[in-house]
Amino acid sequence: MFPYSEASWSVVDGAMFIGWGTSLPGITTVLAMIACVVVLVIGQRSESAKAKTFDK
């Protein structure tokens, strides 16, 4: 359902995306933060393992 009386982009006056006014933006932000931390941890483990081979 379109929240305006007419289906035109000219009546949209602000941010409009899926989940506006619900907890969806917060949930997706938390999921993105978790994904970033996981990628950083995996990358750090991989790089430290590669660096140990050069220390010998």
Order of helices and strands: H
Approximate shape: rod-shaped
Number of helices: 1
- pLDDT < 50 runs, ≥5 residues: none
Rg, Å, rounded: 22 Å
Helix content range: 55-70%
Cα(first) to Cα(last) distance is 64 Å
Mean pLDDT: 84
What percentage of the residues does DSSP assign to strands (E)? under 5%
Offer a concise description of the structure.
This protein is 57% helix and 0% strand. It is mainly α and 56 residues long. The chain starts with 23 loop residues before the first helix and ends with a helix.
What is the secondary structure topology, with strand pairs?
Layout: H1 24-55
Explain this structure.
With 56 residues, this protein is mainly alpha-helical. The chain has a domain at 23-56. 57% of the residues lie in helices and 0% in strands. The radius of gyration is 22 Å and the shape is rod-shaped.
Task: Give structural attributes.
mainly alpha; 57% helix; 56 residues; 0% strand; rod-shaped; 1 helix
